[in-house]
Amino acid sequence: MTRRFCTAIVVAAAALAAGAANAEITVGVTLGATGPGASLGIHYKNAFQLVPKTLGGEPVRYIILEDGSDATNAGKNARKLVTEDKVDALMGSNGVPSSLQIAQVAFETKTPYLVLTPISLPPEKYFWAFIVPQPTELMMGAVAENMKANGVKTVGFIGFSDAWGDLMYKATSFHAAKFGYKVVTDERYARADTSVTGQVLKILAAKPDAVVVGGSGTGGALPQVALVERGYKGRVYHNHGTVNREFIKVGAKAVEGAIAPTGPLMVAETLPAGNASKAVASEFVKRYESTFGAGSRNAFAGYTFDAVKLLDAAVPAAMKKAKPGTPEFRAALREALEGAKNVVGVHGVYNVTPQNHNGQDERSRVLVRVEKGEWRLMK
Amino acid sequence: MGADIFAWLVQDGITNGAIYALLALALLLVFTVTRVIFVPQGELITFAALSLAMLESGRVPGTVYILVFGGLAAAAIEAVVALREHRLRRLPRIAMLYVALPLAVAAAVWWAAPRRPDQWVQVLLVLAMVVPLGPIMYRIAYQPLASASVLVLFIVSMAVHYVLTGLSLVFFGGEGLRSSAFSDAKFRLGVVDVTAQSLWVVLASLVIIVALWLLFERSIYGKALRATAINRVGARLVGIPTVLTGHLSFLLAAFIGAVSGILIAPITTLYYDTGFLIGLKGFVGAILGGMASYPLAALGALAVGLLESFSSFWASAYKETIVFGLIVPVLVWLSLRSRHVEEEERE
């Protein structure tokens, strides 16, 4: 009896699995909603509750695995998703090292990969990878413009002692010559540090006109609080990883006046009427906040949403060439992603080309400033 | 480097060093009495700091769930043991300590949190929530294995650490929190402004260190702890129950952890997993002190604080490397000085 019952279950499961492989598109996702990157990973994951059940009109199944913000796990998850679940596309993860691992798997297994973190890859690896978030140079370009407009000549940098801090330092230095400023310090701190007094004293001794903080989330608040405590009067710039409500809660009065670049969705309602993303972003923010609470909007959930948008735009063309679950479909999907034109997301407009696997332009960034305890669009 | 920068760095180093010193003492206490390397100390810091920040914003911190359910689990274990040994008279005491007390604390927090009580009341509530976690943790995780080897106890510690970090993420979320300062006052001392908060930290640490010293020198419980630390078998032979000293050392360690958390909460942004690193630096301090002497451990911790402060000025990218690299020469020296003894004595 028991045995027959078991057999029945196995047969049923096999039938279901076979059916699933034919009918629907599978997208494999690995994210770190626990571990050191949890504060970002949770948001990326939340957004999957709000994405449509179809891609280009076809039913879709998302398999979301947890990697604990660990690069090795992210790589393992990606490999498992490709070999066992036969996914048609990969997505993930929060954190540069994790995303680099997944990119390697995507490259080896010839699977299209939507990268949810701004990473830079060797040219050949870009073939299968599509970067959803704005490149850091594009974002910090907005900061550089603002610094030039305000006559900033020297910049003090303090950032995380990890890959993100490195990316931000590179992006800040990248624009230095063109916008006529000099980066005078490269200080580092860790998210878990109890004090940044030493670093801040060093920055103050260099007397920079402005300070750029290469942190993310609430971790960006500590240096600014310390700078203000020591009486620093110059401008303090942050980056797009920092813009959320918790940052203001933690920094309180000290972060008043902080400036940061961000995607359009953070200030969706106050965007000018002509902004391409205004409608999509407002709609997304409304749905997100009705599910996860007022003020819960964040850039990271938006990257998940835009990655899905890109897939949504690419699937119809790929469906014409092959069936989901086959290598041919994956190749066709990659080709279709590479030709994505005018895909409007909550983070601006994507025009992907073989040379540019991100495809965003100036429409994907706005500058915001903390005014009276809120991030507000800078005019 | 000017005199003012030097003074600032010293102030910063002493403030952090004082907290590391407290933690080093707690780690050393637990280690010498129970041979447990108390890794979850860090989580107690986190729980205390984040609970304080949540109480301040009028929310009920998840620590109460850990307290109540931890208490229930400990009560269940105790009850099973009591039933098996046919000692039913112990049951009321078990119910009091592990069920009624945590529930009372939880009820007080539920009632008080939305009313946003005075900061002092908040601090007391946090202590009431976090301190009992020490003995509860000991009862559930360590007491059944009390005579296992140091390595087994260390692995248990790692397990407890991961469980508590996971719970911490569930209850406090991934983003950092910070509570408001006890006082915004500043004093001018020579070339530096000394903040009242850092004075608080140093004073509280000194008070606790003196209190610990008095406890060990003057009270019968303190003497029992010292006796167990010096020789476990001998202490048992003269009638000191090792279960009692185990509970007592965890109670003290939890208290010190909670106080450190409360002191540090207004100084920095704390995350659900920050405590581990802070505890680890206390551990480095204790190692610098040779893992044997209290004054040396406190001095070692102070040295860690100062080193951290100065290295974050000169070479911030290598700060952690410098601090943790410090234990290598100390370990080499320790191992050269003492002849290697195979594992600890068997009982």
Structure notes:
- The complex is a heterodimer of chains A (379) and B (347).
- Chain A is an alpha/beta fold.
- Chain A has helices at residues 2-23, 38-46, 71-83, 96-109, 136-149, 163-174, 176-179, 197-206, 221-229, 245-251, 278-292, 299-321, 327-338, and strands at residues 25-31, 54-55, 58-66, 89-92, 113-115, 129-131, 154-160, 182-189, 210-214, 235-237, 259-262, 343-345, 348-350, 366-371, 374-377.
- Chain A folds into two domains: 2-134 and 298-363, Response regulator (Rossmann fold), CATH 3.40.50.2300; 136-262, Response regulator (Rossmann fold).
- Chain A contains 13 helices and 15 strands.
- The longest helix of chain A is centred in the last third of the chain and has 23 residues, at 299-321.
- Residues 15-21 of chain A have low confidence and may be disordered.
- Chain B is globular, with a radius of gyration of 21 Å.
- A two-stranded antiparallel sheet of chain B has the order 1-2.
- In chain B, β1 and β2 form a beta hairpin.
- In chain B, α1 crosses α12 (274-288), α2 (41-56) packs across α11 (242-264) and α9 crosses α11.
- The model of chain B has no long low-confidence stretch (mean pLDDT 89).
- The chains are: A alpha/beta (379), B mainly alpha (347).
- Chain A binds chain B through residues 33-34, 36, 38-42, 158, 161, 186-199, 201-202, 205, 217-219, 221-222, 244, 246, 249-250, 252, and chain B through 5, 8-9, 12, 15-16, 19, 166, 169, 173-178, 180, 264, 267-269, 271-274, 277-278, 308-314, 316-317, 319-320.
